Amino acid sequence: MATEVSTKGPDLRPDPQPPMVGGHHSFDSMTEKITGVIFAATPKGWIVGFAIAFMILQVLLVSVTYLIYEGIGIWGVNIPVGWGFDIVNFVWWIGIGHAGTLISAILLLFNQTWRTSINRFAEAMTLFAVACAGLYPLAHMGRPWFAYWLLPYPNTMQLWPQFRSPLEWDVFAVSTYFSVSLMYWYIGLVPDFASVRDRAPNQLLRMIYGVLSLGWRGGSMHWHRYETAYLMLAGLSTPLVLSVHTIISFDFAVANLPGWHATIFPPYFVAGAVYSGFAMVINLAVPIRHFYGMKDFITDKHLDNMAKVMLATGLMVFYGYGVEAFMAYYSANEFERDLMMKNRVFGPYGYFYFALIFCNGLMPQVLWFQRVRSNEAALFVISLVVNVGMWLERFVILMSLQRDFLPSSWGQYSPTFWDISTYIGTFGLFLSLLFLFCRVLPMISIAEMKHLLPESHVHSHKDSHDHSDSAHGGSH
Amino acid sequence: MDAPKVKIYGLVAEFETPTQIVDAANQAREAGYTAMEAYSPFPVMDLHEAVGFKRTMLPTLAFFGGLTGFLTAFSLTTFTSGGAPSFITPFLPDWFYYPLNIGGRPLNSWPAFIPPEFELTVLFASITSVFGMLLLNGYPRLYHPLFNVPRFSRVTTDRFFLCIEAKDSKFDLQGTKQFLEGLQPYEVSEVPE
Predict the structure, then answer these.
(1) SS3 label, residue A92
(2) Does B57 touch chain A if contact means CB atoms closer than 8 Å?
(3) Closest Cα in chain A, distance from residue B192 (Å)
(4) Alpha helices, DSSP H only, in A254-333?
(5) Which residue of A315, A326, A465, B45 has the smallest Cβ count within 10 Å?
(6) Cβ(B158)–Cβ(B41) under 8 Å?
């Protein structure tokens, strides 16, 4: 490319970024707005919301306690369906978490500045969703106090885990994913903890947030190393997030079962994860920006962008359904064909399959319309439906277990009360953690948001003559 | 030169815009100061170069962290499965040898070991990046002399500070103060140790 940009002719460069910060904000007002939520008196709505979430959390507590007391016989799982709600919900929650990593890592690498205001709570959502997901394999063990047997460590039994098993890969993938997400989230919070520390109204808060900030003081070398580390983490998280859902899809795809043994699984699981994750981010962003008055930071443009990502990933997922059906037909394998038509589409849970096609495939097509994407309420409802659809997808896939090769070994799965109560209970855990997060932590990245303000750019004397061509054009 | 009454850490000048702090840091470096640091509420482009900091070794550290992770997972999966090369096998303890014969498949089934290897590579590289960053930056460090300057609390909101430290060979309380005031800061303050 020529180094000289011609000044003649029409300017074909894309418009400068639309403002990702509404209103008139300065560094100070921005810091005030975001940290103010922490220092303000607890809103009544928060107390009510947290109380409800906390009560639902007790449902989980009771369910898990009874499970540990009685054993997993209280669930509807049995041969041939040895996995039921537990793996469905495990995959569903993990998938929701993936949008957080996508927003914080992949969009950072692609220089999408609109991620800035939503990345903090999307990452929090990731952590809490993975925490909910992690409960299921632990609970499914029946004897969760032996959970450490999953880890490779030298032991007196002289045993090692089966490293060739996708379930063991899960242990590596999910624990790495949780650890990396936690570190990413925490170091993102460190400078903001310092902001909170420096504005804290009393000594106690100053000490708490001071310790959390590790004593951050924003030196230029510190920032340089910080940005380097942050960027490297983004680069590491990007393949990580893809690998995690790939490995989770291997739980199914490696098994030699009709309807599972397909190469489409990894990409379509990843797309589905991002799909449901973005739906959940919208489900959280709409109330947060509403109740906390954050519309200047989480603008309509953000919702619009998220809806577009949802539409794109939704189409990929829909394509996946098509490929599954086509491959079952094209393989000319009677087990695949029977699984697809007689079990999945017109089988015992056939109505779930049609509901899935509606929720994930057809209904989100309304997102093609700008009017829908700019309507908060519509987006909220569509996102809920998508989340339901993605849950159905995992359930429908799992129900392949009901009918394998031999009709004599067929069986029917139905969830019990405790399956359902455990699922409902994890919402209590998820929402309780989210409410606590919104109350005590800066829910939007303060330091990164300041970068979106034009005042944050350095006007150098040396290159002032070509300044109008700089990347920040239009924002001066 | 008057002996200062309290031991001082350095002199700090407060600025209001990123442009001012970069200019000030550049001038201080050109004036020959080396022991200095500029503080800002968000990363300011090239500010670390203005104070004379070249580049961080962090990416190199992370690379070796990742390599360690890979080698850990590689030896863990391959050696415990009985896939170690024959020149290594005699050195492996008994408890590190657990071959599983699954339908006569090779013991060194390396493709199946890629997922753990990948995950541990990412995990170790991430841990090295994060903790390497914190350690190189000297965190956690809850007390710092700069926190004695009341206005320094605005460094996390909207102000930019340039601190020339007393350990600088060119540091001289009066002279450096005059130099900093020449940079047209909002305010110059002494930082008590």
Answers:
(1) helix
(2) no
(3) 16
(4) 265-291, 300-330
(5) A465
(6) yes
A401/A36 Cα distance (integer angstroms): 52
Query: Cα dist. B12→B4, B92, B157, B181, B187 in Å?
Result: 16, 59, 17, 10, 8
ipTM of the complex, rounded to two decimals: 0.92
Q: Do A217 and B118 touch (CB under 8 A)?
A: no
Q: A225 and B56: CB-CB below 8 Å?
A: yes
pLDDT digits 0-9 by tens, A294-352: 888 888 888 999 999 999 999 999 999 999 999 999 999 888 888 888 888 998 899 99
The CA-based angle A182-B68-B125, given to 5 degrees, is: 30
Give me the amino acid identity at A339: L
**What does the pLDDT look like over A251-306, one tens digit per residue?**
999 988 888 888 999 998 999 999 999 999 999 999 988 888 888 888 888 899 99
**How far is Cα of residue A376 from the mean position of the Cα atoms in its chain?**
20
**How many residue pairs bridge chain A and chain B with CB atoms within 8 Å of each other?**
214
Edge to edge, the sheet with strand B160-165 lists: B36-39, B160-165, B8-15, B187-192
Residue A401 has pLDDT above 50, yes or no: yes
pTM of the model: 0.89
Of A26, A154, A219, the CB nearest to B37: A219
Contact A265, A253 (CB under 8 A): yes
- Cα–Cα distance measured from residue A42 to residue A292, given in angstroms and rounded to the nearest whole number: 12
pLDDT band at B3 (very low <50, low <70, confident <90, very high): low
How far is Cα A470 from Cα A121, in angstroms, rounded to an integer? 31
Q: Is B42's CB within 8 Å of A163's CB? A: no
Are A320 and A360 a contacting pair, CB within 8 Å? no
Residue ranges of B 5-24 with Cβ closer than 8 A to chain A = 17-19, 22-23
**DSSP-assigned letters across all residues of A339-380:** IIIIIIITSTTHHHHHHHIIIIIIGGGGGGSHHHHT-HHHHH
- How many Cβ atoms are within 10 Å of A225's Cβ, its own excluded? 24
Question: Nearest-CA residue of chain A relative to B129?
Answer: A229
Chain B residues within an 8 Å CB radius of A247? 115
- For chain B positions 135-164, those within 8 Å of chain A (CB to CB) are 136-137, 139-144, 146-147, 152-158
Report CB contact under 8 Å: B18, A455.
yes
